[in-house]
Amino acid sequence: MTGFLSAINLPNVLMVLPIDIQIMIHDPYPGKDMFRLRMLIIFRISIVLVALFGMLAACSGTVDVLPHTVYYRYGTEADTQVWRLESNGTTKVQLTHERASVSFYAVSPADGSLAFVTDNQLFLVDNRGQNRRLIADGSQVDRQAEDYIFRGFIESPVFSPDGQTLAYAFNGLHLYDLASGVDEHVLINLGNLLGEPFVFDKEVYAPHSWSPGGDKLLISMGYFEGSTLAVMEPGKAEPFSRLWSDWAVCCTYHWTADGSSVLVANPTFGVHWPGLWSYDVETGEESALVSSLPDSLHFVGWPVELPSGDLFYFYGEWFSPDEGIPLVLVRSGPEKDDRTQIRPEEFHISDALWAEDAELVLISQFTDSNTMQVVLVRPDESQMQVLIEGERIWDLAWGP
Questions:
Q1: Residue 211 contacts by C-beta under 8 Å, 6 or more apart in sequence?
Q2: Helix and strand tally (H, E) in the chain?
Q3: Do 379 and 343 touch, CB atoms closer than 8 A?
Q4: Which of 53, 130, 269, 289 is deepest in the core (most CB within 10 A)?
Q5: What's the distance, CA 80 to chain centroid?
Q6: Backbone torsions φ then ψ of 105, nearest 5 degrees
């Protein structure tokens, strides 16, 4: 110990020491306890070094601001690729380099593998964008077929939570097992409506999201004049159970943590009523949480359930053809009209992605210059942080 202490070159450390230590070193009185002094110097140097390394880490982008990596589609209509934002909130990596734009993608929660659709083909790559393999090929379907529009396109891939199963739409619903390579066509779109002067399938299926436990899959069922939702449990005799509603349901979906309910919210103005509903997965029963009337519209989007049972969601009450629908972040209690605004800003949201613990949300929105940005927002009074800016940013998703 004394050898180490005596090896300290005092003149070399003077520049990083506080002034009081420098005075003590130059004290002309030989009776000072030099051992105690050197220990004090070591202590003060360690404080300086810890602070210095902390600043260097922050400057180099190694401090995580996100709980996971974030995937997104980025680019123009003619050239859209999949990118990844690292958890430091600054490093961006392009994962696909396709000749045709990527129209759909999904990221595995297990290992970051990527499934994506380009030129009507479904591919799978690893988390570095390598080891590419073809899963499904829509280019083999006869484009002249009368109902090609309902049977010829590959869409909406989504991984199960364990990353073992990939659901996707291609003339119905497919479940692809990644370990065995077995592709099961579990639901086939129903045939064309009869006695009509146009072509439209009776029922068209597509996957939305898996339950937190991975044992159920939320699917949409499209019709000529509407749509509904259903829950499928792979392996069960009954193919699915419907979630009952008097009208078409749309547009953002959230499973509760226990997998017993699905929250459906519509923040848009159009053919679907805006509002917020909860569906019991077992019974299919609907409960209206926020309802609209012709003279009283309530726009709700991107709800998330808190451990307390309260909800966070984005909420608005008016629509402008020029400005769209401005939404604010609110917290809602068990009563239907129990809403509290928790941030002052208005958002014009294209997409929103909540962290699992609801401690932050990523919002993709248009700017005044008609570009897009992704901002990190916390449900408190902290400052927002811009993470991504560019021409077009779609389909935010967490990585592992």
A1: 217, 218, 255, 259, 281
A2: 5, 28
A3: yes
A4: 289
A5: 18
A6: -155, 165
Q: How far is CA 272 from CA 276, 279, 303, in A?
A: 12, 17, 17
pLDDT tens by residue, the chain, 400 residues: 444 434 444 444 444 444 444 444 444 444 555 545 555 555 455 554 444 445 544 455 468 899 999 999 999 989 999 999 999 999 999 999 999 999 999 999 999 999 999 999 999 999 988 999 999 999 888 888 777 777 899 999 999 999 999 999 999 999 999 999 999 999 998 866 555 544 455 788 999 999 999 999 999 988 766 778 999 999 887 888 999 887 777 899 999 999 999 999 999 887 678 999 999 999 999 999 999 988 889 999 999 999 999 999 999 998 887 778 999 999 998 666 689 999 999 999 999 999 999 999 999 998 888 899 999 999 998 999 999 999 899 999 999 9
Residue length of the chain: 400
Q: Using CA atoms, how far apart are residues 135 and 166, in angstroms rounded to an integer? A: 10
Residues 6+ apart with CB under 8 A from 274: 266, 267, 268, 292, 297, 298, 299, 300
The set of residues, in sequence order, having a beta carbon less than 8 Å from that of 168 and lying 6+ positions away, is 115, 122, 135, 136, 154, 155, 156, 157, 158, 174, 176, 207
Q: Give the residue from 308, 310, 352 showing the smallest Cα distance to 328.
A: 352
- The CA distances from residue 76 to 82, 100, 263, 361, 368, in Å, are 12, 11, 32, 25, 18
Cα separation of the two ends of the chain: 46
Q: Which domains are present in the chain?
A: 2-59 (no CATH), 75-243 (2.120.10.30), 257-400 (2.130.10.10)
Q: pTM of the predicted model, to two decimals? A: 0.81
Do residues 121 and 154 touch, judged by C-beta distance below 8 A?
A: yes
Beta bridge partners of 200: none
All residues at 6 or more sequence positions from 390 whose CB lies less than 8 Å from its CB, including other chains? 74, 371, 372, 373
Task: Return d(Cα 189, Cα 202) in angstroms, integer.
Answer: 8
